């Protein structure tokens, strides 16, 4: 597949609906919101990611001759409609929250304002991209939090759900806080550090473990991590590693950065024993890296048990977000422009209150405590609503409305977190580099208290509605229930 | 990303090891096996898939000028080695089990025989591709079994882990038994049926539900499934659908294939009520399709509760294999060719008996009961071992060796399931079309008794070792434990 051509990466119903709109000559401008209802993995926040790939996708939208030919072969589309498709391009506006920002349920991560035919087509691919990368960035952020300052390396490519899941998963993992990835293609395409040493097969291909270690160290004296568990970690692996470290030291050409990697067995016990052996041999600066089915829970427990591990390679459980492998972002109609050019708010009701959408053309203000810089709450309001931070701000829970907080004027700051990305089909946004996004994401998670980052039952950040948005939503709901 | 260039889709350590082999002038021919240790999701079997993409990958292996340039920029590779890479191509042999075959733990799904530098490079991408597609094909096979003959449609693109996970996930889902996919790109690339109707946004974009239905039916009279849960399934959706069906019937142009789709609420209750309403109105041939967070367990329960559902759209839980999102295939060294051209079997030991590898150059015979055609057992043996099915065959459990079965000569048949795919770097295998693979997979699952296909605690198929392979493995293990 050529990355330039994801135009047909869409659900079939987007095209049947498009033809329906086409035939009905119904192509009014609409607003769709991308949002999610729940943070994955029980987390207290999410990290949004994937915008750069969404931008590439939208820029390159284009039905080739082959695409149109294929659609014709399905015998369901008219020649008129196929002709329309062959000239298709995206002409609308897109607003989005920049990648690496911490986000919360119900917030529009991305807002498409476009003729309904265009807005409908892009639903599936936008969701696919944002759902995937936000999932992995969020999972990584949890794992990085559990590691409490130790480096996390992304090692999951072989278990990722296909090449893209490995590639863009590595991208999202770097955004979420990994220090490097084993994925060479990700290193090339996103200019991020690549890492790794050797496998068991390296050891097995030499006549013995010592010879394998010795040869590896000779090759890579600047950065030499030896995998010590091929035969027996404490009886064979660690002693052989120490022997090699010592030989280099005694030769007058000591290894620069060096250490061992544990990949099986009980990592708490083995790391502590290995640490003692390394220290006793005078190699206090040898690092211990661990891998083998790690996740944030095991990592958290190993840290509690004072495992002597300096850095962690995390594979399967990170790259698939094993306990919660989907993000659940949805794409819902929020408004339709009428003939007077006004956006008429639309709402999707549901028996489940949590599933009721927020209507209208919206934006989000993020509110910080002025003194600490910590995030206090998010406020969803209509685009264009303005606030004066010198005045008091009354926030209330949009479901349990009697729960209120008053922020005194001058004690808080606000910033709008949705920014323009496309205007009239033109891209007006420059994506930062992945490492820049990662640095920004670090700042973002620093605006959260540890209570919100806790792995279990984290403190919830409030996402409130402005009085104006709340009133419109309530009146739409009241109309709906009357018409029932 | 261009599908032609996945050469750098590899773990960094494959390249550092390659350089190590290069510098050591150590490039003997080796054998690596791809196998897995456990069926995913507690299943009784797996379905292997992904071979066609592995073939494409191997055919197109090639370090471009940009690739070499990138690797040079890492300041860890020598010019000699980079020069070697710039001329790299795969020159070895690959044997594999054809896609759609049912497979079991410990069996080599794929066997690479190549100079160690080449065999090492391809590890990561081969695992990535086989792990992903085999996972989704297996998950789909479970869901299809639970549906007991009803059609399953793959609807997961928006929740897949990136574009490839959607695309190749759809491919694997078709192999595993889906009747169609919503993924248009999968339809185009793999020539498989695409399916889908309309979303809630279609309904919401018209002045009312009836008008939306009417317009949709006018557009698609040959195949018209109306989504009935936008406002209220039984009070509004089903009555409006019936009104539209009736109007078309009375106009003398009845809809050809038509029905409704339920996407929320209790599917057992709503489907039975909707069925009564449709039947009472004279639309016994209207179909009822259901979607909304389905998996094999919910589907199984809904069937038990006699939900009146004819076909099922399955999304997130299929495309991510939610309860088990990775397949766990590994790539292990099995033999090294010595200077006399003989393969010396290699074994990777482990404290965990299940993790000990099977050494040597192996193949697999599948054994069927002659009368029923059902699969009796698989036998892993050395390549070249021959059997006469007119003679008795003694099988024994490779761990609990006292558990034995004697198959009388003439009562069983055997076939070798590993086939040549590359010989001396040339591809000698033609991949069937996806629909051909799907038909073959259906035949394959038909060789299993329902006891093995059961969702919970399925009957285990035996995978035994030949006496010769068992003896070599035992003697290698004995040597290892003595040298400890």
UniProtKB/TrEMBL annotation, chains A, B:
Q: How is it modified after translation?
A: Transiently phosphorylated on a His residue during the reaction cycle. Phosphorylation strongly increases the affinity for substrates and increases the rate of nicotinate D-ribonucleotide production. Dephosphorylation regenerates the low-affinity form of the enzyme, leading to product release.
Gene3D superfamilies named among the record's database cross-references: Aldolase class I, nicotinate phosphoribosyltransferase
Q: Where is the Nicotinate phosphoribosyltransferase N-terminal domain?
A: 8-131
Question: Nicotinate phosphoribosyltransferase C-terminal domain: from which residue to which, for each copy?
Answer: 361-473
Where would I find the Nicotinate/nicotinamide phosphoribosyltransferase domain in this sequence? 152-321
Presence of the UniProt keyword S-adenosyl-L-methionine in the record: no
GO molecular function, one example? nicotinate phosphoribosyltransferase activity
EC number(s) reported in the record? 6.3.4.21
Task: Give the record's keywords alphabetically.
Answer: Glycosyltransferase, Ligase, Phosphoprotein, Pyridine nucleotide biosynthesis, Transferase
Q: In which pathway does it act?
A: Cofactor biosynthesis; NAD(+) biosynthesis; nicotinate D-ribonucleotide from nicotinate: step 1/1
Q: Does the keyword RNA-binding apply?
A: no
Q: Which catalysed reactions does the entry list for this protein?
A: 5-phospho-alpha-D-ribose 1-diphosphate + nicotinate + ATP + H2O = nicotinate beta-D-ribonucleotide + ADP + phosphate + diphosphate
InterPro entries hit by this protein: Aldolase_TIM (IPR013785), N/Namide_PRibTrfase (IPR041525), NAPRTase_C (IPR041619), NAPRTase_N (IPR040727), Nic_PRibTrfase-Fam (IPR007229), Nic_PRibTrfase_pncB (IPR006405), Nicotinate_pribotase-like_C (IPR036068)
This molecule's function is given as:
Catalyzes the first step in the biosynthesis of NAD from nicotinic acid, the ATP-dependent synthesis of beta-nicotinate D-ribonucleotide from nicotinate and 5-phospho-D-ribose 1-phosphate.
Family listed? Belongs to the NAPRTase family.
Q: What is this protein called?
A: Nicotinate phosphoribosyltransferase
- According to its UniProt entry, this protein's organism is Dorea hominis
């Amino acid at each position: 597949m050529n990355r330039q051509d994801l135009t047909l990466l869409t659900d079939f119903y987007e095209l049947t609906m498009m033809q329906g709109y086409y035939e009905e000559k119904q192509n009014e401008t609409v607003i769709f919101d991308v949002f999610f209802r729940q943070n994955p993995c029980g987390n207290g926040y999410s990290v949004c990611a994937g915008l750069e790939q969404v931008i590439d996708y939208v820029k390159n939208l284009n039905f080739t001759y082959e695409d149109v030919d294929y659609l014709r072969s399905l015998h369901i589309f008219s020649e008129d409609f196929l002709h329309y498709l062959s000239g298709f391009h995206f002409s609308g506006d897109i607003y989005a929250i920049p990648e690496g920002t911490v986000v919360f349920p119900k917030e529009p991560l991305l807002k498409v304002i476009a003729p309904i035919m265009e807005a409908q087509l892009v639903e599936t691919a936008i969701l696919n991209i944002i759902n995937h990368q936000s999932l992995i960035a969020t999972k990584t952020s949890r794992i990085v939090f559990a590691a409490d300052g130790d480096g996390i390396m992304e090692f999951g490519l072989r278990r990722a759900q296909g090449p893209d899941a490995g590639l863009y998963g590595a991208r999202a993992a770097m955004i979420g806080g990994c220090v490097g990835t084993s994925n060479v293609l990700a290193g090339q395409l996103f200019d991020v550090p690549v890492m790794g040493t050797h496998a068991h097969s390296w050891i097995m291909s030499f006549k013995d473990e010592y010879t394998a270690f010795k040869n590896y160290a000779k090759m890579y004296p600047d950065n030499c991590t030896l995998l010590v568990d091929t035969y027996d970690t404490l009886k064979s692996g660690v002693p052989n590693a120490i022997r090699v470290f010592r030989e280099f030291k005694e030769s007058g050409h000591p290894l620069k950065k060096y250490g061992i990697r544990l990949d099986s067995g009980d990592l708490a016990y083995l790391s502590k024993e290995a640490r003692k052996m390394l220290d006793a041999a005078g190699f206090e600066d040898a690092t211990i890296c661990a891998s083998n089915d790690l996740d944030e829970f095991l990592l958290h427990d190993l840290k509690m048990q004072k495992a002597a591990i300096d850095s962690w390679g995390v594979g399967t459980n990170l790259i698939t977000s094993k306990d919660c492998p989907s993000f659940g972002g949805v794409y819902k109609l929020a408004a339709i422009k009428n003939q007077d050019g006004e956006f008429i708010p639309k709402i999707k009701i549901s028996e489940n209150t949590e599933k009721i959408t927020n209507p209208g053309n919206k934006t989000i203000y993020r509110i910080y405590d002025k003194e600490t810089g910590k995030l206090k709450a998010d406020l969803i309001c209509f685009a264009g609503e303005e606030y004066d931070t010198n005045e008091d701000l009354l926030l209330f829970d949009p479901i349990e409305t009697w729960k209120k907080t008053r922020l005194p004027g001058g004690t808080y700051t606000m910033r709008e977190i949705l920014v323009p990305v496309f205007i009239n089909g033109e891209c007006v946004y420059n994506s930062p580099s992945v490492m820049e996004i990662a640095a920004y994401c670090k700042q973002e998670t620093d605006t959260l208290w540890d209570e919100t980052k806790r792995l279990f039952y984290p403190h919830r950040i409030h996402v409130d509605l402005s009085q104006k948005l709340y009133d419109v939503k309530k009146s739409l709901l009241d109309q709906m229930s009357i018409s029932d």
